[in-house]
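Oxysterol-binding protein, Sinocyclocheilus rhinocerous. Tokens?
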Amino acid sequence: MASIMEGPLSKWTNVMKGWQYRWFVLDYNAGLLSYYTSKDKMMRGSRRGCVRLRGAVIGIDDEDDSTFTITVDQKTFHFQARDADEREKWIHALEGTILRHTLQSNHSTVLCFLQSVGLMTETDPSHFHLQEAETGFVPSVQDFDKKLAEADAYLQILIDQLKLFDEKIKDCKEDESRCIYNVLSCESCVLYHVCCSLQSTINPVDGVFQPAPLNTSVVSASAMPTQTTLPTDGAQVCKTEQRPSSLPMGPVVTVMGSLQTPTPNSTGSGPSAPSSSVTSPSHMNIPPHSVPDFSYSSSEDEFYDVVLPTFILERRSLLEMYADFFAHPDLFVSIAEQQDPRDRMVQVVKWYLSAFHAGRKGSVAKKPYNPILGEVFFCHWDLPETEDPESVSDGPLPWSSKNSVSFVAEQVSHHPPISAFYAECFSKKIQFNAHIWTKSKFLGMSIGVHNIGQGCVSCLEYDEHYILTFPNGYGRSILTVPWVELGGECNISCSKSGYSANIVFHTKPFYGGKKHRITAEIFAPNDKKSFCSIEGEWNGVMYAKWATGENALFIDTKKIGIVKKKVRKLEDQLEYESRSLWKDVTTNLKLKDIDAATEAKHRLEEIQRAEARERKEKEMQWETRLFHEDGECWVYDKPLLKRLASQRH
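Tokens:
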């Protein structure tokens, strides 16, 4: 038996209704995961059973770092490793085996289908190299990614044609015409499932599409190599080359563009609030069984050339999305109004937990534009029931008042992509400084985002600084109806007062469960037991249980009002402000003119590339506009803390 891995795992048995120890052997060549009651039984060849891995789908549970499942032939097997590291080793080995044997079965079937519907010929230079496959060639992940993008483009062609047929079908009485309509409808559906199948094959761990058993007569198992190396970097998984369709069949999407690290709104950490000067784009209501449009996405160093559905685009910049942390400015400034350090920590937690829901007015996830290096965004909020006193002439926004919450953001780095932002309220003597470096990973039908960085809430009257981190985000079901969830453990701590909080954003468990759950614990200095426990949904209602035994509503995000941010009109903005930079892209996306939007995006990218080349030739470093690097952090040049200190002196 040509095993590549063996060792102990626990297997769930329905008979015993519990976990039982088994010795497992993974046979790479046969595509089998065999199990024995003990290692001795394995040595004697007394096998208890086996799991066939061709076409299998691996599932993992973010709530439990040691369990995983294998689903194949409409059966699900549950396994438990000793720890997360051991589970990762098994999953990596299983991925390789699944990929190899699924490629064997899917390779020829996809080719035959594409040829049968006339989308590929034997002489096509982009052919899957069938003859090479018969002699041992295994298509790479990039080959499959190219075909996925190509299938997306053909799918869009069929969608466009079906829209034209829809307009005429009511008046159509000829049987032949109706037959053509039915054929095109079927081909559209099949192509859509081909996309899902290819996507699932690229990453079978997180794929949700399970192919049926297929005929493997075209490519034999003996022709396959004995080892397949799976790429672990998202950039390797997602690369594809520019392949615009040459078929003259109406408006065709350009299969190009690339995906930057998805941001907290598409992944959950930055909600979007309405603006007073520009109407927020409406959320698309997607009817059941509809096939999404596909369009361009923007660029980043983690992913290249990944085509996303149009409705994922937020039609505004990531920098503007970060402003939505302050969609409830009254909660933010109320931190400084609390007299007791314990109350201030509780209020920080309340503001923090309210900062993620504002943009989630619909169930469809949105993806913002990736900021250009040097891009900035300015806005402010006027607090409810406050007078309009004098402006802050030396503040970040000279046109805002002392009672306003002012916000500035800048894209301070392109590689890696780092955004820095700052907010303050002069009258309340409170400020916030943060930087986020988003690092993404492609997960088959999902996108995961690791938000690296931190924020700092500073209450200047009390000389307190609350350091906080951000949750990871996940964009799920990106090929169908995308939705977003947050995951991971975050911390808030104040070194001066000693108060701290642990917040856990729970991803949806693999076995049922609810979406968007959070739990939080707030601790007093040197206490191991929390004085406040919070649970609920970050985009819904959260309840607090106090050490006294009292249970009370902590915050209801569905009932608290969102304060509109105020942004200068386009004609008053600087050329490198977000809305001014992206106005052509935004306008064309609203008009659903994808070609024009892509062209406008390319113009911005070309300008950025030209400036980068010029700096390289002149050996010049990029100079940021509003922030500077301080150790591992990015700090606003003129924070309220520094300005008040200079006034005292």
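The chain has three domains: 3-98, 103-238, 264-648.
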